[in-house]
Write the structure tokens for this entry.
Amino acid sequence: MSSSVLRMVILGRQGSGKGTQSLRIAEQFGCVHLSTGDVLRAAVDAGTELGQQAAGIMNAGGLVGDDIMIPLVAERLAQDDIMAGGVLLDGFPRTAEQANGLEAMLAELEQQLTVAINLDVPVEEVTQRMMARGREDDTEDAITRRLGLYEEQTAPLLDWFAERGLLATVDGLGEEDEVFARLRGVIDERLA
């Protein structure tokens, strides 16, 4: 596989613009934008053994654990569209344990990660953005809780990627096009 195929992870607080930018990156670089939600829904719809296990947990209101999530992502990464075109992982990995799983599954496929980008937007700004969306579950308390959980889980993950020389932090403030230009600059540099 040539190194011109993008395999990246995007990280960032809720409200940082990850979703918007991920769609643009996937379109620009021809890779599959893969969120954990997509992986779970596809497995459940396909009725695979793992999908059925995940459905049972989700229907009971539980969170799907690494024991199911990691093999689900591994299955998806091995499919032809991703092997040929690359992938942008959004929402996975969330923990260092999942990152270890990702590293192992890519090694098995004789692939490696191009870059992990942390789309950095200050807490005050993402809080304002989420409040402005006006969703019912975007109360100030709920937002504070979600952001707290993100910091708790993701700080060790940033260290994990940094230790491997994979982490790039991109300023997520500014116009959508400006932010995209920054992201594209980092990705182009890593693919070169």
